[in-house]
Amino acid sequence: MRCLASLLTRRASTAAVALILCAPGDSAFSQDAASASGVALVDEAPIVIKDPHYGEALFYFYQGRFFTAVTKLMASQHFERVTHQTHDAEILRIGLLLSYGAHKEAGEVFLQLSEHGASPAIRDRAGLYFAMIRYQRGQLAESEKVMNRLTHWLSPELEEERAVLKANLLMGRQDYAGAANELEQVRIKHGLAPYARFNLGVALIKSGREARGIELLDEIGKAPAATEESAALRDKANLALGFAALQADHPENARAYLERVRLNGMLANMALLQFGWVDAALKRPKAALVPWTELSVRKPIDAAVLEAKLAVPWALTELGADGQALDRYKDAIATFEQENRNLDESIAAIRSGKLLSGLLERNPGEEMGWFWNITELPDMPYGAHVAQVLAQHQFQEALKDYHDLTFLARNLDRWKERLGVLKGDVGRVDARDRDAALARAPQEGPTRFGKFNDRIAAGERRLRAMTSRVAALMTDQQHYVQELAVAALEAQKERLVSYDRQARFAVAQIYDRAGKEKSNADSRR
Questions:
Q1: Using CA atoms, how far apart are residues 412 and 402, in angstroms rounded to an integer?
Q2: Does residue 5 carry a pLDDT above 90?
Q3: Is 1-173 assigned to CATH 2.40.128?
Q4: What is the spatial distance between Cα 327 and Cα 129, in angstroms, rounded to a whole number?
Q5: Which 8-state DSSP code applies to residue 44?
Q6: H or E element: which one contains 241?
Q7: C or N terminus of the chain, fewer CB within 10 Å?
């Protein structure tokens, strides 16, 4: 099931905030700007900027400098420099504040926007973005509360986004029938994009309307794929169909679906595992050995590979080859023990700070914000463990917060340097021009320079307080992020313990069986 987190990640560029900035006949963005990730959000229209200072904020926004954009925008709003596009500026500010997790501040701006005569269309666009970010941050109840206040003044494109988010929220509390109805209504009115159709198919199956759900997923599973994204969705649909068919005790149907999954795709391991269980369900353990054996020699970092390490000797036992099964079980136990040691090394590296420092060094990011993404993995003892940790949404969000804090710490250091330079400049001007200034205005000069010095001193005090606060938060957040990563790897260790116990129990059964057979043979002599 595709969640809004992946939808938002796919659009983690200008299009993500442009989602609420643009609508037909409304704000000042062109089709090209709004669809930077290939998503059409608005009709083509010329860019019209009525407030230059709002345009300056947009310039930095489209450069990916979101902190600078929101800083410039808020300064211009403070000095009342944005007078013609006030609502557009407020929507941009809401989006940028939300991207930094400033939900309280963004909520206040949203409330002001609603109370000060913004059109329903603008309120709904801002509300949709508000709900999407809260969903992304794991605040499901708050997201749904905002969603329920939308009055459906959305364009067809954004109406689909609303329906997908609403459906995900409903499926999150297992209301699959409600999710299916939500998506069906949009499908009838406007049609649905492939990911939304996939969600609809899953919701229909889980709500008991299997035939219609299977029909929708089968359409996706057969569709030609021009991009890697569409090919991955097709694999996902076929794997879901295979699972459903196996659960319904239709192994032949499951085989047909699983055969469509690419062997080099992200879901290949799980498909191979299920392909073996298809043959097992058909009482053909010898045939099941083919996919399971292929899977068992792959890197033991995937749950499907580890399960295959147990499935292969199970099939051999079913075929009466206890000797080969025993060797396979012993090999599985050795693999589990080695992987357990590897996980211990990765956990030690994480707790030493190597993971966080490596991630930030390889993925510095010019500024802070929700749009920062990881493109390179750090050097770690076992990089595959890092990839599994990074796949967790909670870890990604916590890591972004830590990245933001490091940016703020650097920004405060730069301001400390600037204040030092400014302090020196004031001192030099004071020494050089004081006599001339006093001659022109006996009272004005000392007062003016004194005020500058007082403001600099006040700024230095604020900087010291903020620097101390950010440093404390960075320490806490570093510990939190590292423990999230450790918890994920500890869960893998627990899974390994379970697999190890199963393998050892199977070995004991083989020895027990062999002992009984020997005893029976001796008694017959």
A1: 15
A2: no
A3: no
A4: 56
A5: -
A6: helix 228-247
A7: C
